Amino acid sequence: MPPLILAVAEVADGELTKLSTEVATLARQVAEAAGGSAAGLVVDAAPDAAAAALAAYVPRVIAVANPAVAGEVAAPHVAAEVARLLGEGVTHVVLGATTDGRDVAGVVVGLTGLGLLANADAASWEGDALVTRSSILGGKAVTSSAFTAGSGLVTLRPGGVTAVEAAAAGTVEAREPAAPALPAARVLDRVAEAGAAASLEDARVVVVGGRGVGSPEGFGLVEELAGLLGGVAGATRASVDAGWVPYARQIGQTGRIVKPALYLGLGVSGAMQHRVGMQASEFIVAVNRDPDAPIAEVADLFVVADLFEVGPALAAEIRARRG
Hints:
The protein is α/β, with parallel strands linked by helices. The chain folds into two domains: 4-175, HUPs (Rossmann fold, 3-Layer(aba) Sandwich), CATH 3.40.50.620; 205-322, 3-Layer(aba) Sandwich (Rossmann fold). Helix content is 26%, strand content 27%. The chain has helices spanning 18-34, 48-54, 75-86, 99-112, 219-228, 237-241, 272-275, 307-322; strands at residues 4-8, 11-12, 15-16, 37-44, 60-65, 92-96, 115-120, 122-126, 129-136, 141-146, 152-156, 171-175, 205-209, 232-235, 262-266, 283-288, 301-304. Helix 7 (272-275) links the parallel strand 15 and strand 16 (283-288).
């Protein structure tokens, strides 16, 4: 039987996330290669805008308007919709490897007993099976995995797939919400991190501070350049472990994975753990006093200099060009 692959989307501030477009693209491309079909799922208090955006990537979108997700943890509600669609013929489910995506995947696995292939960088249809590929050991090896039972769930890391719209927009089908898969916890408060106006995964420009910035005050330069370039400030694990910036800014194997048009690293050594999270960036610029820093191996432009000389000069030049 040809596969029916479901892309589970996520919504942030009423809009479809960038990773959701990558998840949908992967679902569609794998389904086409297998001679099957793909569909998308959006569950939100107001899903219309996100569902319309998702329809640019898959031929069919199920939009579930569920007011409960505005005040409750979404995973039980989303998992209930996924379980319902599995009962209607869905064979494979693709989700983002995010906090919410992992929560939904865990609930669905518990409900159905299906297998889970986590943290995939890519996937393809080979023979009669969906096969995922994932980098492990800090990017030193790549594994290939498939479901022994033929069906299952996949969580996709950000940046592994380039989002490409379908040749024609799909249709949107509105549905009433199903009962939650299990009791949903209420959300009592939401806290937005200061300075995180845009997510690292969605940013076209990411400016990263490494151990070389030296202190929390040193990150002022990182954030200044991020603001001037219309980007988002990120950090290495060493900077986070030192307590200079919160974990939400961390990029790498145990943090966020980014794929911006421009990555600018200041004082970043380029340890493998960090490179796993940023080496897919389109253009990489790094500033480091150490000419042998590993970041040079992946940088398109490597500047051997003091970041506290280069950074302010770059900021001044940007301001001058803006008039």
